[in-house]
Amino acid sequence: MAGRKQFDVEEALGQSMRLFWQRGYADTSLDLLGAATGLGRGSLYGTFGGKDALFRQCLDRYASTYGDRYDRVLAAHPDEPARAIEAFFDAVLDRIADPSVPDGCLLTQSAGQAATLNPESRAHVQVLLGRQLERVRAALSSPHVDGGDLDDLALYVVAVTQSLAVLSRAGHSPEQLRAVARIACTTVEDTLARPRPGVTPA
User: Fold this and answer.
1) Residue 82 phi/psi, 5° resolution?
2) What's the Cα-to-Cα distance from 124 to each of 58, 107, 127, rounded to whole Å?
3) Which of 124, 125, 128, 182 is the most buried (most CB within 10 A)?
4) What's the CA gap between 12 and 10, in Å, rounded?
5) What residues have CB less than 8 Å from 9, skipping those under 6 apart?
6) How many domains, in total, are found in the chain?
7) Is residue 8 situated within a structural domain?
8) CATH number, domain at 88?
9) Residue 194, number of CB atoms within 10 A of its CB
10) Which of 21, 46, 49 lies closest to 36, judged by CA?
11) CA dihedral 80, 83, 87, 92 (to 10 degrees)
């Protein structure tokens, strides 16, 4: 049929996401994207709107794929925030250890290259990182801990998560990464066990 795309858009998006993940935004050229997807520049622009628009679509795909996993593991432990965060770190480490995907985290890498992104893409990275913070903060909800402490704790968990991604790309072993996660889980548990002033734990 005339005008019908002769390629799998989702597959091309997946290949592009992987390339941005492997190389970062700055080192991913249109020529490399074309080689990875088998598409010419005209098809890339016509389908995705150019490199920056394609990059943001790849960020969305990444955030959706892994965000859904994180939502499931966090939701699997209602009223057990410490256990939920432990499960969250397990999911993060499983993703890092997965040999079928690049090392690290596309969002972490993109945040580190913020200076190379245009304003729209830079803002998009911040929005997606904000969603991760919101998801963790929701899982940490506890009536026995001060809300400000929970905000700080959620930011701490996200910071450790991003650090794990950086350490994995730097070549640290899975055992080293799990040691970091264990210490983080202990910190979370200890903070949650510390009652809010004037509140007696149930």
Assistant:
1) -65, -40
2) 11, 10, 5
3) 125
4) 5
5) 47
6) 1
7) no
8) 1.10.357.10
9) 13
10) 21
11) 100
